[in-house]
Amino acid sequence: MNWALVWNYLPYLLHAAGMTLLISAMAIAGGTVLGLVLALARSELGRWAGFTVAAYTWLVRGTPLLLQIFVVYYWLPGLGIRLAAFPAGVMVLALNATAYYADIFRSALQTVPPGQIEAALAVGLPWLPTMRRIVIPQAFVPALPPYIGQSITVVKNTSLVSVISVQELMFTSESIYSSTYRVVETIGVAGVLYLGITSILQVFQIWMEHRIHASKTRVR
């Protein structure tokens, strides 16, 4: 292990890890919002809305993420839609995550007894406050573990945007070991940094589960 090389290139890898964290945060935020919208549309709107959402999730989940990146970055310019590498990568990751989040949220929403929704609407509470105050808080608990699991997948999937030259952690690692021929040191540090980022999400899950358990205990 060449520790001098690791020390010399560590600032570049840390900067790239920050870029990976930024891409992940933007993709997770966008996918969460869109996924919740699609889940509510599929659950609450008509048959055609449900069919459209189901078709979208089928298409996204049934094709490789790498193919989706190539379609957006290389195929869309032929239609006159040109995106720089960074926004293209974030957009594809967010849209890909949306399909998975939508199914996670839809399954969680189905755990809420329909009678509670009907009772809230019957006493005059509008649909949106009903979702925000009654349905979504209850659906949050069953959705948390698969949501965090999918978010960790999003973090790891950021490595794929290196193929369109987004200078995130994997792209920077490849650049370093291509010039130094020190694969073990470079990939080893990159692996530790990826593990650090994903561990943030795992710690958040544990913290939230403890808070939920504590709140239920106080209620009892």
From TrEMBL:
Keyword presence, Calcium: no
Pfam families in the cross-refs: BPD_transp_1
Family recorded in the similarity comment: Belongs to the binding-protein-dependent transport system permease family. HisMQ subfamily.
Keywords: Amino-acid transport, Cell membrane, Membrane, Transmembrane, Transmembrane helix, Transport
Subcellular location: Cell inner membrane; Cell membrane
Transmembrane stretches, start-end: 12-41, 53-75, 81-102
Gene3D superfamilies in alphabetical order: MetI-like (1.10.3720.10)
Major localization listed first in the record, in broad terms: membrane
Stored NCBIfam families: HEQRo_perm_3TM
Domain ABC transmembrane type-1: 17-205
UniProt keyword Transmembrane, yes or no: yes
Membrane topology: Multi-pass membrane protein
Name this polypeptide is given: Amino acid ABC transporter permease
UniProt cross-references to SUPFAM superfamilies, sorted A to Z: MetI-like
